[in-house]
């Protein structure tokens, strides 16, 4: 049953603060992190909860992100409930350990305030950090609102620690756009969160009563089998995510799905975008529909595992798909999101025209006009029957 | 005849990219003073600014390199010394100077510091120590004193950890020139920076600075002027003191001076000699 409204605490919170509250309520054992803009507030807020005696967790403010993820792997290995937060270059410094966390099947919730990778140095939002780690084995969930950041962080623990999964989860929020902007957030009562997230039941932790060796050499004899198991685990995510979300919906009335569809059913042109761009895209669709143009939006939340079949189904008979993405894969056949979407649609009976617009790198603003520009181009390309492989919008050329 | 209005220019502005002004530093911050020290040291030595490479990492101090009108590199967090090693080894003719903060040099980049000291590669590292991560808003780091407050060690408990003494760290890791000054001792500090640049070997100069915006505010240490006055009051000059005695206690005593100035074979020179031998020259 949905929790009664009088028990819900409503506050104006930034994305970072909303996540900090979710981490507080999730009853962590260990949080290890290193400061990096625009994530830092998550850990600062969390430390304040610690100083106020509101949490039991040990906070390890380590000397680098590499150490942060390493400490998380260690803490997860002994069976703790573990979280960390980072962004951009900090995330990149964790690289080596990201793969270790995923392949050693360590449930860790990793909140990321998505930010451009260096260089040159830039602190603003794009998805180059998240896209860079897309093959690390982490589950990736990107959020559109502060409420979604809060909700997703809570659900992430259930997903990560589920015995059919046992994988780390990245929860992404757009740096500054979401991390620093205040929105209305409904927070669940502590006891309800406690009931929802439960206590982690570790599988084969490092235990003095039952010693085991973790991470030894597995060469030509066994390495491949580890990867096979890891692959199976991440493919079980959609089913478990659905169950977890159904349970979450029961208490909150909210759900997001692997992706969200908006006015796609009769759409000629479907915009596919992630994170906060989804909100802008929906507004653009509304306005264009007022003008009689059939535009819909798919806002992708789960990038890993990628919901290929679902996306293909949701695109249906649309004439064109216009992808707006905040990352580049230099020299690739397509940029990260377009690569996935093109692959997802390859099996479709009538493949739509696929446009790939790279926008907003390094925090360059992506206003509604950028979407309109993309849609106008899409219409031209549809008329001409051909389109460029990709285009950058909003950049001096 | 038209009258021209005389434009007052700072004598060191010839080394500074004025189109990048104003500096991003907060009012009351020490980094501007240290930027001035470095410019004056370069000026006093009369070295060719174009053959001087200034490298910095991330953080408030990390922004310093970009203000100098020469070859500069603003690297990633902690990696300034490693980048600088690459510059120096690839072209030993260049004068290489690293300017970075305590968080950058002793936390995330601590490993590079100790190994560059050990290698004794000819470069000057100026570390502005303001005892916290200022750029990200004032979290505690490896130079934050025990029980001091910060964004990640809030009241009532403060910092659980104990700080590095960077003079001791650099000296024991093998640096051939080690000095410490506060940001108010501009003349003495500038002299040490000159010596450090001239030194054929790894030089480490720590400048204790004030961060009134974050560290000062959270520990109620007063504004920039108050903090700098305090630095002057507690600074105690002990040139030649064994480095392991160079204590640092913000509230009561900051031992300043030049503590190490020794001769050791320099890395790029040794490397060149080895290459000559390998070629049978």
Brief digest:
Chain A has 397 residues and is α/β, with parallel strands linked by helices. Chain A has helices at residues 15-25, 41-51, 65-77, 88-93, 95-103, 128-132, 146-161, 190-197, 223-235, 237-252, 277-290, 308-315, 336-345, 368-384; strands at residues 9-14, 30-33, 58-61, 82-86, 109-114, 139-142, 169-174, 182-187, 259-262, 269-274, 295-300, 302-304, 320-325, 353-358, 391-392. Chain A has 2 domains: 5-252, Rossmann fold, CATH 3.40.50; 259-392, 3-Layer(aba) Sandwich (Rossmann fold).
Can you put this structure into words, describing what you see?
- The complex is a heterodimer of chains A (about 400) and B (about 280).
- Chain A folds into 2 domains: about 5-250, Rossmann fold; about 260-390, Rossmann fold.
- Helix content of chain A is about 40%, strand content about 20%.
- Chain A is built from 14 helices and 15 strands.
- Chain A has helices spanning about 15-25, 40-50, 65-75, 90-95, 95-105, 130, 145-160, 190-195, 225-235, 235-250, 275-290, 310-315, 335-345, 370-385; strands at about 10-15, 30-35, 60, 80-85, 110-115, 140, 170-175, 180-185, 260, 270-275, 295-300, 300-305, 320-325, 355-360, 390.
- In chain A, the strands form 3 sheets. Chain A has a 7-stranded mixed β-sheet, with helices on both faces. In chain A, strands 9-11-10-13-14-15 form a 6-stranded mixed β-sheet, sandwiched between helices. A two-stranded antiparallel ribbon of chain A has the order 1-8.
- The longest helix of chain A is centred in the C-terminal third of the chain and has 17 residues, at about 370-385.
- With about 280 residues, chain B is of the alpha/beta class.
- Chain B has one domain (about 20-280): Thiamin diphosphate (ThDP)-binding fold, Pyr/PP domains (Rossmann fold), CATH 3.40.50.970.
- Helices cover about 35% and strands about 20% of the residues of chain B.
- In chain B, α3 packs across α4 (about 110-120).
- Chain B is globular.
- The interface between A and B is medium-sized, with 23 and 23 residues.
